[in-house]
Amino acid sequence: MSLTNIPQPYLGIWRRTLLQEMDVADTSTFVLWLQTALYHVDIRIPAARPAFNTINHLDECSFEQLSWLATQQGFTGITEVNGNITKWIREHDFQPSNGQRDIGKIKFETDNILFETGIDTNYQEIWEKVPDSHLKLSVKQTTGENRHTKNVPARLFIANSTFAYVRPRNTQLPKAVSLSAAINTFEPSKDVILDWLDFEISFGEITDEDHGYITHSTFPFREGKQIKLS
């Protein structure tokens, strides 16, 4: 696949160190953004996560655990850069679409630090690049199994010694400002909630050419597990 769209300084993995919205500063949410020359993947895991150490599958989660999972964020899609304006087109989003563009003004403070300022909404984010993450950069279309053991489209990103795997849900979310709001408003059955949350974004370290070790995931019970990369 030819990837030729994004300027070189953007390429690699970025970790967010600060989100400033009005008078609220967030430094505790774990956020990674992996950018290739066309596609991106982003994961956002809030702090104070409950324990999932006895859980092996999504359908084993309690309602309280499912409710927390609904507060996560993440997405994948195509990135467009026009001068210092960057737009992330979310082809697959963990949260329902709120109708707003994901678009910001980018300023590179150094090669490894960038500032993002919101255009449609009022925010500022500071990002730091993971060293050498622009090396061996690739993305490929693949498949994965959803919770019903059905094969669905997925993406596998490689950035030097790190991978990111994205397997979106296979159902449509209702219109809502967030997944949590959708659950509270529509009061769906547990089976429906499981389908809404059946969206895996996993980052981890490559252990050999065929395998990786998951370190962060929208499925916490997958962390520490091995994933096949080929």
How does the SSE layout of this entry go?
Elements: E1 12-21, E2 24-26, E3 30-35, E4 39-45, H1 63-69, E5 73-82, E6 85-93, E7 103-110, E8 113-118, E9 124-129, E10 138-145, E11 151-159, E12 162-167, H2 179-186, H3 190-197, E13 200-208, E14 211-217, E15 226-228
Antiparallel strand pairs: 1-2, 1-3, 1-9, 3-4, 4-5, 5-6, 6-7, 7-8, 8-9, 10-11, 11-12, 12-13, 13-14, 14-15
Give a brief outline of the structure:
By secondary structure, this protein is mainly beta. It is built from 3 helices and 15 strands. Strands 1-3-4-5-6-7-8-9 form an 8-stranded antiparallel β-barrel.
Plain-language structure description:
The chain has three helices and 15 strands. With 230 residues, it is mainly beta. The protein has one domain: Beta Barrel (Lipocalin). Strands 1-3-4-5-6-7-8-9 form an eight-stranded antiparallel beta barrel. The chain has a six-stranded antiparallel sheet with strand order 10-11-12-13-14-15, with no helix packed on it. A hairpin with a 5-residue loop joins strand 8 and strand 9. The chain starts with 11 loop residues before the first strand and ends with a strand. The mean pLDDT is 95.
- Per the principal axes of the C-alpha atoms, what is the gross shape? globular
**What does the radius of gyration come to?**
17 Å
- Please list the strands of the largest sheet in the order they lie side by side: 1-3-4-5-6-7-8-9
Helix and strand content put the structural class at mainly beta
Strand content: over 45%
Instruction: Determine the fraction of residues in helical runs and give it as a percent range.
Output: 10-25%
Task: Please give the CATH class.
Answer: Mainly Beta
Oligomer: single chain
Distance between the termini: 16 Å
Count the DSSP helices. Answer: 3
Biggest sheet record: 8 strands, antiparallel, barrel
Report mean pLDDT, rounded to a whole number.
95
CATH architecture: Beta Barrel
Domain unit count: 1
Low-confidence stretches: none
Instruction: List SSEs in N-to-C order.
Output: EEEEHEEEEEEEEHHEEE
What fold name stands as the CATH topology?
Answer: Lipocalin
Give the total of beta strands.
Answer: 15
